[in-house]
Amino acid sequence: MKTPSLPAPVSRRRFIGQLSAAAAAISLMPRLGLAADGPKPAKKLGIALVGLGNYSTDELAPAIGQSQHWRLAGVVTGSPEKGKRWAQRHAFPQRNILGYETMARLADCPDIDVVYVVTPNALHAEHCIAAAGAGKHVITEKPMATSVADCDAMIAACRGAGVRLMVGYRLHYEPHTAEFCRLARERTFGPFMRMKGSNSFDMGDPDPADYNWRVNKKLAGGGPLMDMGVYVIQAACMAKAEEAPVAVTGKFGPVTRPRLFAQVEQSISWTMEFADGALADCETSYAEQVSLFEATAAHGWARLEDPAFYYDEPLLTTSRGVVDLPKVNHQLAQLDAMAAEILTGSPSLAPGEMGRRDIAIVKAIYAAAASGQRTEVKV
Ligand code: NDP
User: Fold this and answer.
1) N or C: which terminus of the chain has fewer CB atoms within 10 Å of its end residue's CB?
2) pLDDT beyond 50 at 32
3) pTM
């Protein structure tokens, strides 16, 4: 698969545009809940992680442990033994270890304010709805669900219960990405009209029996488009100030690892077409290692790379130079900002409606790739 043709990376030592970037960073800090020397909150929010896999274990639990705004107050897991180990390690009571089928008991856990759903994609809806039914605010991992109908049900359940619904879109809270959004929103270079992006991860070629749910269509809902591609969709919408595309075209890539990719695509490329004629050419794959996004306008350009979408600090370069902003832990920045959004009742940068928009786009891309036809996006 071809990767977008980008100019060679620019040295990080080129700090042209540093002053305006620093000003942008400072203005972002309170919004992102990053004021480390600010007053300590009177009470930390209690959070329960649902699904104790890699993302919960390696990223979210450590971020919660570092946060001034959160404490890990419980878990929902299919493994009671794992639950006990987590309760010991994170010092929460055994009564706050729940199973998926007993999530209604969350209603009896007053020390849990928020439930964070980190299970395979197709299970997000069921677990979100159960948490909302127990009166808890919900953060759900991306992709929000595997169908628009499930997204609607999740939004309705949270609205009906009077609780918040947010999607774990960590990059909305990452300073370089937030600055990219500002450039798009304020049309610093004019409206971005040409975009190119790719976000891929090389799974290797393990025996499917040794691999997990990501290649199982029922649990994943699709292949890399559902997983990594959602970030490229997000970046294209960010470049258009959160507008959705009006139509898409799509094409599945070749399958070179057939035993792994029997149920889901190995790779897919697609184009998003916006109302003003802007176009975004995008791709995602489970057999490549690439992560970048660039957007071009009449009076300049901006590029996220090195990598654009992984957990590291992205390199943001514009036609004015490298933009130097603080490096953050993505999960900590996201969680702290979401705590502020919940505590102040302010709108979220990543609400359920945004997750629903992205699933509508994903579904249109799959339909376009299957039919070979330009497909309208109905959001
Ligand atoms: P893992 O496979 O590592 O963990 C998933 C966990 O879900 C399992 O450990 C298990 O926990 C639980 N689970 C419940 N039912 C099932 C089932 N039928 N099959 C498999 N697991 C099940 O996945 P990840 O942690 O990598 O991903 C989880 C979610 O987080 C996904 O939606 C993914 O897209 C998202 N994610 C987001 C990232 C981001 O950057 N925002 C990065 C990585 C993942 P238990 O044993 O406790 O029941």
Assistant:
1) C
2) no
3) 0.92
Q: Is position 231 annotated as part of the catalytic site?
A: yes
Tokens at 157, concatenated: 């359940």
- How many CB atoms are located within 10 Å of the residue 271 CB? 20
What's 146-187 look like in SS3? CCHHHHHHHHHHHHHHCCCEEECCHHHHCHHHHHHHHHHHCC
Backbone φ/ψ region at 187: left (φ over 0), alpha (ψ -120 to 50), beta: left
Q: Helices (H), strands (E): how many in the chain?
A: 12, 15
Task: Sketch out the chain's domains with CATH numbers.
Answer: 12-171+333-348 (3.40.50.720), 175-327+359-376 (3.30.360.10)
pLDDT of residue 27: 43
| Pocket-testing residue among 75, 119, 215, ligand 1, by greatest number of atoms within 8 A of Cβ | 119
Rounded Cα gap, residues 12 and 34, in angstroms: 23
CB-based contact 304:199 (threshold 8 Å)? no
Tell me the per-residue pLDDT of 221-277, one tens digit each, with 9 for 90 and over: 999 999 999 999 999 999 999 999 999 999 999 999 999 999 999 999 999 999 999
Distance 221 CA to ligand 1 centre (A): 13
